[in-house]
Write the structure tokens for this entry.
Amino acid sequence: MKMRKGVIMQAKLKYIVGIVSFAAFIASCSSTKNLKEGESLYVKGNVIVDSDTISKENKEKIATHLEAALMPKPNKRLAGVPFKLYFNNMAGDSVGKNIIKKFLKKIGEKPVLLSDVNREYNENLLRNRLENFGFFNAEVKSDTLVENKKATVNYTAKPNFIYRIRSVQFDIDSTTQLGKDIRSSSDKSLLQVGKNYSLDVILNERDRIDNDLKNKGYYYFSPDYILVQVDSSHRNNKVDMYVTVKKETPAQARVPSKINKIYVYPNYTETSTGYQRSTRNAELYDSSYYFIDRQHLYRKPVIANHIFFHPGDVYNRNAHNQTISHLVNLNSWKFVKNNFVDSKEVPNALDVYYYLTPLPKKSLRVELLGKMASVYNGTEVNVNWTLRNAFKGAEQLSFNVFGGYETQTGGSADLNSSYYRYGMEATLTFPRILSPFGRISPSRRFIPKTYVKGRYEFLNRRKAYTLNSIALDYGYIWQESEEKQHDLALMEITYVQPKGISENYQKQMDTIPALRHAIEPQFTIGPNYNFTFQNTMKQHLKNTFYFKGNLDLSGNILGLIKGADFNKGKTFKLFDAYFSQYIKISGDGRHYLKLSENSQLASRVSLGLSYSYGNSRSLPYLKQYYVGGPNSIRAFGARAIGPGTVAPEKLSNGLFYADQTGDIKLELNTEYRAKLAGFVHWAAFIDAGNVWLQRDDVNKPGGKFSKNFLNELAVGGGAGLRFDFTFLIIRTDMSIPFRIPYLPKGERWVFKDIDFGSSKWRKDNLMFNLAIGYPF
């Protein structure tokens, strides 16, 4: 059973006490109790960089790099505890047929002893690593510290002077085509005069030359054919570098290759004898591509459009990789394999074979999602049926049927969460831009997509009301670069119609008029555009960013045609619902500052603005903003803040109504994240924000946006743990409110009220969130 991202759980303190007690028990175990006389447990290899000329920050980086090279590795630890060693010790030396002891031995780890450490080997290894950095005269010494049978080996590394590059010469015959091509990119060399000598830079320079040559047709060239000779005989700690091509480089690797014939097998099944090159029944398309597809399961123009080679082209690595990337991302083939074979007809030419093994034409996937919390619980099932290559052009048609329920089991908030719902969604995706203006391709590097979506959902909040909703979308998704993506819905239509309003909910609406907004008929029609920028995948950068902007328009042309103006009482309906007329702009910007290899500062600013006019006084309920919850302001429940200084509405049964929404939003978050040990990380955070209304509302005094908006921010903070299993991140956050905006002025900061010893205060203020993934 999977837990949906964002699911939260109110935890009781006794569970936390239990975890802490268990950790204390593990920590009390002895890691050395099974050692023999004279043995010591190797717990750490420590490197100290002894230098007056290297900065403290660089010494720490060098020490970290050197420590990672030390052998052997100590026993694995979690929060400082060698847990696998404890399992091994619990099993004892004599296992016999005891199943439990065998299991403990299997998951455990034998002790790493001081006798396993070869100090001389490690000293030579560290000297070698320092030489790779340019410290040719480095010295390394070591000593051992043993205390209570636990041994630490300290290595003192004295780098001495670093060697720098004095000159770089490309010693290559410029009369040959290979020599000319290598020299033509010498101005982009990574070997720069004045820079430190570095073996890694030399290896990267060989790869750079090879990549440049691959894009000039040298298919058979290899980085190993490049030789960088270093002369360090100078007395002033300088080196001269000579870049040359090895004499033993094959003749075939010294000349560019051209593309001859291109063969495509779009319905290929690999045989036991490997990939076949039979070209029987090949059909020539566009004078360029031979297709072997006797059943004509795929349209040739679609596949040809994603092959970036033509006969007569010089081989190019970028075209090679781009073709493979496109064919894979068409999501029609399980395996995409290509072979380049020497042509028997043309010298220095290659025949290209593309072997495409299809995915199953149809597939069925069933997902069961569980939601558990002390406030509510429930389940949901999704059944997804997919038809690939629907019209022989790599199109994908999918139908998703879903249903589920949720029931409220406690808490002081009336979340209206007891419901059941069901519905269906159909999506048709084309791997190209469909346009009446002809063929449009925003970027040849990435595959654009056209999508058509339709969705129906029936929601029954059994004690309140039922809703029928229909949504239709038509639009495009395309990627401008690795960092930039666009999603333009040319037309997005949403229609919501309520039915079956209960007598009890009707009475609540009479007490709290704001409840009417949730069940108003809604009709939105217009374009919707999203732009996303992110460079967070570039882990070598100290500062990385993520930004998502949205422009959402509805009913603007329709309102102008109708002459709608709610101020004059001129409002109009479509399908028994007043159509919404608004302009909505949203932005979510995030900054990640890398403080060290194991820590960072993550910050987010989320802003939402809207302007409703003509046929609408405010945003429709489904489009309004809200804050609070496990991925927002974590010290407050979802939808429990605002608008402005408006307090959650009290209901007659002692509950409060937590569904506070608005037309304007501001949210600020910052979080310090650091690694504790292994896969366990921790974080400390502060969140702030609120929502506001565009116009005054007599039922929500204090909810309108004003120049005093900063004095109306909710603020909370706390700390938590993150368990990073690479494929899954489980997050726990404990937080409390610092500032409550709906309290009287002068009393909104609540630091003075914090009382962890009070059970009532903890119940009202301590918020524990259990969620999947990071909040931002």
